[in-house]
Amino acid sequence: MAGESPAQLSGPLTGLAPGIRVAGYLLEQLVGVGGMAAVYRARDERLGRVVALKLLAGDESVRSRFVREARAVAAVDHPHIIPVYAAGEADGVQYIAMRFVAGDTLQGVLRTAGTLTPRRAASFISPVASALDAAHAAGLVHRDVKPGNILVDSRRGGPEHAYLTDFGIARAMLSMGTLTVAGQFLGTPDYAAPEQINGQPVDGRADQYALACVAYEMLTGTVPFPRDSAWSVLYAHLNEPPPLVTRIRPELPRALHDVLAIALAKSPDYRYPTCGDFADALRLALGLDHYDPARFPSQPGTAAVPLPPQGTAPVRLPTPTLVEPKPESATPDPTRPWTAVITADRAYYDSVQVAGDSDAGDIDFPEDYAERRIPLTGTEIRIGCRSASKGIEPEIDLKGPPRDLGVSRLHAKLVPTPDGAWTVVDLDSVNGIQVNGRDVTPGDPVRLAPGDHIHLGSWTKITLTQA
């Protein structure tokens, strides 16, 4: 079982070494170590088999959690989850014995290969997704899905076999790149879902987000948000869309954009229902068959896109087309004033479709719309349609004439940042907004640069500029 490079043992584990016996297991070789935990290749002397023996020393709360999660994982019977043989305590040290995997981690595979072919990437994502769904059905959330926790059994005579390991068992101690903030965040920054970072309750959709980060890394050779510090990575997960995979590997199909955008949505409500749904959508976008055809017995189908939450039917709906972002965004200059330039965008108007025939006659493009320029003053700027009776007075009033019927009373807002830039937030509007052609999740701020375009309603375009 390959893992992190062995390091020096410390604390209660310092007395452990090859040749020592723990609970009937003869330690043979140290293969992974952290501050309070170690993983050994060991021999079960009762059955004569090699096992991976994970040893942990900690306080009562750590020991209780270790045993609880070991039992939970042992209850999940899945061909791509490391089987647990035994767990308990001996001489003040907690232990868990599991199958020993002769091979490497996916992290090691990526370190050697750089990027993977689409077929090989899918061959890892699909079984891990299946394993995660099985764990979720048993009430387990992994919360630390990453290449280092995916073991690759590459014995000769058979295909690579992926195993998901470390379901929270001593993960904070064994993962050298793991951040822990009491009561808020436990995981690895490069693969952490926004709700996990914010300390909110998490479910299987947080694991899906992490798995999508792993897929992104396998296909591009880089994590979605490579940054200089862990906190910069966390900020990006919360606020920034991931770069398109085709900007790194142009030969990849553009259909991947929609699939990854859904799985990496800032809000879990906009992700796929299960990890398996994400994995199958990814396979279809890559031109591959379903991983488990039994799930789709009637017809091949296409990648399923989750619908937005139930609510008032919008007047017009954007079509699922993708617009490449500008190759380069201008860097905001905090000394220069910002202006919101409001125009009518014919191309955007032509790209959306009528939600119902009854709406078609009410939506006309204003051919002679006069450009409006609104200075941004350094305070929140609300965007919507004024209503004196309801007491709604947005700073950018799009009531007209002419009025864009797709704009809500309070549609969005522009929020200044401490460094002199601006973000835009969709205020859970009926029709939503797009920034540079990408849909924005309601409530999630999107950082803007000079020249960025916000589309809303049926034809309204707001361009941010600096004089």
CATH homologous superfamily assignment of the largest domain: Transferase(Phosphotransferase) domain 1
Strand content: 15-25%
End-to-end separation in angstroms reads 59 Å
pLDDT averaged over residues: 80
Structure summary, number of beta strands: 24
Largest sheet composition: 6 strands, antiparallel
How large, in whole angstroms, is the Cα Rg? 26 Å
Secondary structure: helix percent: 10-25%
DSSP helical segment count: 11
Overall 3D shape: elongated
Overall number of structural domains? 3
Low-confidence stretches: 2-7, 169-184, 298-329, 353-361
The CATH top-level class label of the largest domain: Mainly Alpha
Structural class: alpha+beta
Describe this structure in words.
This protein has eleven helices and 24 strands. It is of the alpha+beta class. It folds into three domains: 11-99, Phosphorylase Kinase, domain 1 (2-Layer Sandwich), CATH 3.30.200.20; 104-295, Transferase(Phosphotransferase) domain 1 (Transferase(Phosphotransferase), domain 1, Orthogonal Bundle); 316-466, Sandwich (Tumour Suppressor Smad4), CATH 2.60.200.20. It is elongated, with a radius of gyration of 26 Å. The protein starts with 20 loop residues before the first strand and ends with a strand.
